[in-house]
Amino acid sequence: MEARGARKPEKALTTRFVETVSAPGKYFDGHGLFLRVRPNGGKQWVQRITIRGKRCELGLGSPPAVPLAKARQISLENRGIAMLGGDPLQDKREAAAELRFEQAVEMYLSAKLSEFQNEKHRKQWRSTLETYALPVLGPKKVSEITVQDVLRVLEPIWLTKTETAKRLRGRIENVLSWATVAGHRAGDNPARWKGNLSEILPKPTKVAKAVNQPALALSDVPRWWVDLSARDGMGAQALAFLMLTAARSGEVRGMTWGEVDLEAGLWTVPAPRMKNSREHRVPLSPQATALLEGLPRMAGSPYVFFAPRGGMLSDMSVSAVMRRMHEAQVKSGDPGYLDPRSKRPVVPHGLRSTFRQWAAERGYPRDMAEIALAHWIGSEVERAYQRADMLERRRDMMVAWAAFLRGEESEGVVALFSGAEA
């Protein structure tokens, strides 16, 4: 007797029926092939077949990835194998067990990369796996990867590149977890940290401290700004706008004209482009607005800071401006633009720290400065009540920041906000 909800149509299924059916149940096509529709709307092809005297059900994939014609072809092939005394179920298991790690990486990334909103993050995901994991794990079957294999990847960089190694471990774990769920391996995940690699490798916090991005010293800001203002090119313009707004490089490089209201002096970054997935309003100082008004526009390109072919400007283009500015200073006999603590050359992301230090020393409220940087403020409960983004007060702050960059900061700014609390 068929399970409740089973349907036997008077004739074979059609492609249109497979695409449109939504009622839960089993819909038979003939020769043991049927379409299972779950209550949540999910669909799966299933074949009932007798293998060596034992009745079995084989999953044949899901539409639309496996269309009706393909499901029929697979089911016929399985019937032929079974009639000759073979075992298509075992063949399927063996084929799944043959998947190599390098193949699993590609299959995982093709399915998951679209979830990563940040283009830089997507590139880093692939880059770390290709650089460190694939040379060791690439040719190995995912079903045969062990803890020792994972250690061969991580141990050479665990003490010297701890942050990279930590992220790499998580990425290997995700790929192997996908492989397990997809039926390509079984058992515990050899890249799991808790109760597994944690018993062998030292804790990341014990071997490496978080290193902040090199920031520009406040005393160097005016001369750095003069240096930058003398440079041409889209990368230099993007870097200047980044400094004026204290925004992240990716937010600036992905900026489109549709996000800007020049008349209102406002840049609204949509939630999908923000690190915290929350819309962010950026008040533009007159200097920032003037910079935008003076930019060329490329027909067919939506980007404010566009690459030569009209696409989004690369992160390297902005970083290269910083590097060249530092190198030019060094060649002239100057120490260059160095972080006052680490003595490392300044990078674009470190300019946000420079702004944060300036805001703190000038007495601006903590929350105002943190909102300007698009950071989360307080606990989840506090954020639920604090919905104002202090836009006009932040506008005054950004005007004062632009004046500081030009070396024109007035003493009145400090007095106005002195002693203000978050």
Automatic annotation (TrEMBL):
Protein keywords: DNA integration, DNA recombination, DNA-binding
Pfam families according to UniProt: Arm-DNA-bind_3, Phage_int_M, Phage_integrase
Stored SUPFAM superfamilies: DNA breaking-rejoining enzymes (SSF56349)
Domain Tyr recombinase per the UniProt entry, residue ranges: 211-398
Annotated TM spans: none
One record GO biological process: DNA recombination
Organism: Marimonas arenosa
Residue span(s) of domain Core-binding (CB): 107-180
Domain of life of the native organism: Bacteria
Name of the protein in question: Tyrosine-type recombinase/integrase
